[in-house]
Every structure is written in structure tokens, then in C-alpha cells.
């Protein structure tokens, strides 16, 4: 047996007689089968790794968007809260199907949510000489929830000295993209709250604008005051 060099510098044994043809055929088949199997396994593995990389990359991008959007939302809330009665808020941090809840009402949709703050600004300008919000504290009880404790102060447009305030919390829930999908107002406490009733935001504004202080006699329309007035 004399080894000979075939194409590709591969050394293959040389046989004599009829067996050479059969051996060459078998060796060729084995080589092709082995090469094909290896290539197939390699191809499947590459495709699997590529799919896993793409899924991981998509997950990383989604998580990155979540933290970017949530950070933007928190900064926006901090900036918007003090000006809530004076200018239009930034609504790009909310989802279109935002749900707002206070102790009385549940409102759905970004347009109706915007109308709440428009109403607060409108009534605030009518009934108050001064109206502002102080942020008391901000914290995250869990990763996708932000809680803001606030205090509203108001000086109503009345001819006597008056001032009101109420405290409450706003809880914001963020979705997987870092957008706010729920805003809940709770723990509202007035400085002299009405009994047996939990007020809504609209009632709170009315309370601040019409405090239950003693009024001057010329505002009193009771029968006793009218009977004591001089007749013409």
C-alpha cells in the first residue's frame, strides 16, 4: 500500500484491485455524511444562538426604554406638581387609556384626564386669589409605583381673611414601557373636613373657595337679619 496525496493535501490509502473502487465510495460517503451532519448541527446551533441574542437584545432595549421613560415621568411630575393650577401639564408621560381615581370618581382616557386639570385651573382662577401645591415627599413602595404626598393651599376671593388647605397622596402606576397607566388620589384630609363624607377633588376646591367661616352681617340672608333692618 503506497499513500498518495489527493486534492486538498489529503492523504488517502491506495489499494489495488476491485476493492479500491468500493473503499473510495464508502470513504466518500462517510466524509459527505459526516460533513453534512456537522454542518447541519452547526447551522441549527448558530440559528438558535442568533435568535437568543435577538430576544436578549430586544429585552434589554425594552428594559432600557422602561427606565428612561420612568425617569422622565418622575422628573416631569416633580416639575408639574407645583404649577398644577397655573399651566398646562406635560401629558406625554401618560398612556392614552390612563385611568384616574379619586374617592368618588373613576375617569378613563387621556382627554378626560386633561379636562380634570383644566377644570382645576379654571375654578382656581375664579375662586382664589392664590392657590398652590407643595410636594411633601416622593417615594417608591415598589419598582413600578410612585407615590407623591402633597399639600394644597388656597386663599379664596372673599372680603374677609380666610385660608384653607388639604393634604393627600397621588399614586402613579407605570407599565412595562415606563408610561403611567393609573393615577389614584387618596388619603385626602381637610383642615376642617365635613363629616360622614369623603370629598372628591371638585368638592375640595369648592370647600377651599367657600370656607365655613362666620360671614359679615351684610352677607347674612336669614329672616332674623331682614326683620331687624329698618323699614322704608
Would you mind describing this structure in some detail?
The chain has four helices and eight strands. It is an alpha+beta fold and 232 residues long. The chain has a domain at 80-212: Roll (Nuclear Transport Factor 2, Chain: A), CATH 3.10.450.50. α2 (110-127) runs parallel beside α3.
Describe the structure concisely for a colleague.
The chain has 232 residues and is of the alpha+beta class. The protein is 41% helix and 26% strand.
The CATH class designation of the domain at 80-212 is Alpha Beta
Q: What's the helix count?
A: 4
Termini distance? 146 Å
Binned strand content: 25-35%
Q: Numbering strands along the chain, what is their spatial order in the largest sheet?
A: 4-3-8-7-6-5
Give the SSE map.
Blueprint: E1 4-5, E2 11-12, H1 19-80, E3 94-101, E4 106-108, H2 110-127, E5 128-139, E6 145-156, E7 164-174, E8 180-190, H3 201-209, H4 223-227
Parallel strand pairs: 3-8
Antiparallel strand pairs: 1-2, 3-4, 5-6, 6-7, 7-8
Helix pairs in contact: 2-3
State the main characteristics.
232 residues, alpha+beta, 41% helix, 4 helices, Nuclear Transport Factor 2, Chain: A, single chain, elongated, 8 strands, 6-stranded mixed beta sheet, two-stranded antiparallel sheet
